[in-house]
Write a structure and sequence with these properties.
With 476 residues, the chain is an alpha/beta fold. It is built from 18 helices and 16 strands. The protein has a 7-stranded mixed beta sheet with strand order 12-11-10-13-14-16-15, sandwiched between helices. Strand 10, helix 12 and strand 11 form a beta-alpha-beta unit.
Length: 476
């Protein structure tokens, strides 16, 4: 039976390619294809490389679905409808660490190389074409595959440069954090924005001359020419599929060279410097594990201020999926490398400033959903976070509690740690502020606010006596 159109939610990020469109129906992810895209899909399923990539979990699992499941975009029924596996949590490239972005780039290039070997290409090169199963990247844009045409370059090259290669070069060559650059514009970093930073001897750094300066110059030279004219010029100059494949392999070789091992940060050795006693740590771990395990098995846990992932790993033992959020890119990168080496597919580490989380972006501000719109967790862990927001960032306690409640699914729980004003860490933060600035930062005030938003089911004062843990069912 066809599903009512009122139950179908078009994906806001899926409108740029009119040949196919993604929809959500309940928990299902569906893609409508026009006749040409449907023909490309049938050819894709008959290839050797595509089923192999799906079997290796490098491309999201996809199958045919009844065409009546989604409404027609312009009154004309879709020629075919596909059903995709659901990614546990959608993230954006400006929330990934350096190594995550590089691994996503390498997977994209691996898939493109395999496709070219069987006469296919990808018409997009955007970093947004990839998502994550824990520490494993996965390609999701099935509608991007199309037959390659001899004599034509990779249509996704400019997108790849702007959303992947330039951010990697910015950080690897200059030590500049790419996150604010990539977050500022949904289409990525333009060559003209980056070229002034790579003058003089910096022009000779790997990839800069070819993919930044020469590429930018070609864009200016061909600014008035149509895409068809540029393709005709390349074809007349002898550009071939073999040259295209060699170019892609050259880009892959460059990406593998790009690396950055940043210096140790204040937070990279947090477990040694955080001040917890052995008794505190054991009690806290037992409380957190029990709090996550209480009730039905959580589908999603958010670990806010995850640091080295200690509690994310605890939560993963009792939940389907954990998103580990941490502000320090160095710490997130190290956590990702560890999770990758473990083959971990149920913990996703992300770079995110809790006091300035990712907003909505792109067309109408909804093309890329903000963090709060994507986060609807069954359990939210906010361990040793509240004092950093309330004192370190001057966020009023009621606002902090409201924010935690907003990240929680209906009936979900918040596991939160309150650091008392006399705790050494809170004392240090308060010492940097004018005296008397936070008169309401007290345990009794915090408990009153928490109880007003939900039902406190469990509490534990750690043996040190200066920190208290709570489990609160929000709205309960």
């Amino acid at each position: 039976m066809a599903i009512s159109p009122t139950e179908v939610r078009p994906e806001p990020a899926s409108f740029r390619d009119p040949a196919n469109r993604v929809f959500h129906v309940g928990d299902e992810v569906l893609r409508g294809l026009d006749p040409q895209a449907a023909e490309h899909w049938r050819a894709l399923t008959g290839s050797t490389f595509f089923p192999a990539l799906v079997a290796a979990r490098k491309v999201c699992a996809t199958e045919d679905a009844p065409p009546t499941l989604v409404p027609a975009a312009t009154g004309t029924p879709w020629a075919a409808v596909l059903r995709h596996e659901r990614i546990p949590f959608v993230s954006h490239p400006y929330e990934w660490s350096f190594s995550m972005l590089r691994d996503a780039a390498l997977l994209h290039l691996e898939i493109l190389t395999a496709a070219l070997g069987e006469g296919f290409t990808t018409k997009d090169g955007s970093a947004y074409n990839l998502q994550w199963r824990g520490a494993q990247p996965v390609f999701i844009d099935i509608g991007s595959f199309e037959p390659v045409r001899d004599g034509e370059p990779w249509a996704g090259y400019r997108q790849f440069c702007q959303t992947v290669l330039y951010p990697l070069m910015l950080t690897a060559h200059l030590g500049v954090d790419f996150h604010p650059w990539l977050r500022a514009r949904v289409d990525g970093i333009e060559a003209d924005e980056l070229r002034p930073l790579f003058n003089g001897a910096r022009r000779l750094r790997p990839g800069v001359l070819t993919h930044l300066h020469l590429h930018g110059a070609m864009q200016h030279r061909n600014a008035a020419a149509s895409t068809t004219e540029v393709r005709d010029q390349l074809r007349a100059a002898g550009f071939s599929r073999e040259l295209l494949l060699a170019t892609v392999r050259g880009i892959e070789k460059l990406v593998r060279k790009l690396d950055r091992r940043p210096p140790e940060s204040h937070w990279s050795d947090y477990q040694r410097t955080c001040g917890y006693s052995a008794r505190d740590r054991v009690a806290k771990e037992q409380f957190v594990a029990a709090a996550v395990a209480a009730g039905a098995r959580p589908r999603l846990v958010l670990d806010l201020g995850a640091n080295d992932g200690r509690y994310s790993r605890l939560a993963a033992g009792h939940a389907d999926y954990v998103v580990a959020v941490e502000q320090d890119p160095t710490v997130v990168d190290e956590l990702y490398r560890q999770l990758r080496s473990e083959g971990q597919r149920r913990i996703l580490p992300l770079v995110l400033d809790l006091a300035d989380p990712s907003p909505g972006g792109g067309w109408r501000g909804v093309e890329r959903a903000g963090f709060a719109e994507r986060a609807s967790a069954d359990v939210v862990l906010a361990l040793a976070v509240v004092h950093h927001l309330a004192i370190g960032r001057n966020v009023p306690l009621p606002e902090v509690i409201d924010w935690l409640a907003g990240l929680t699914a209906p009936g979900g729980a918040v596991v939160v740690e309150f650091v008392h004003p006399e705790d050494p860490m809170a004392t240090r933060l308060l010492g940097n502020k004018p005296a008397g600035l936070f008169p309401d930062y007290r345990r009794d005030a915090f408990e009153t606010l928490l109880a007003a938003r939900g039902r406190i089911t469990d509490r534990l004062e750690l043996p040190s006596g200066t920190r208290t843990l709570y489990r609160t069912v929000m709205g309960g």
